[in-house]
Task: structure prediction
Amino acid sequence: MGRNRESRNGPLNHSADAQASNADASITLNRATLNKIILKEESLKQAEEKGDVQISGNHAKLDEFLGYLDSFDFWFNMVTP
Result:
């Protein structure tokens, strides 16, 4: 999360079993919880309050990072007529 993303577009990639030693914040959750958040069955805050998500480090930096992510309608046209 420490990289400057201003005026840059790009994919969010992950590496299994890897963690940056200089990360501003870390979030830990299992796939089932991530699926619930993606499907908007619960919010990140709700999952954290239930203990299904652990956040360490600078919460403000995590909020800043999440603000960079686009949100899309769940159902959208792949091809428009």
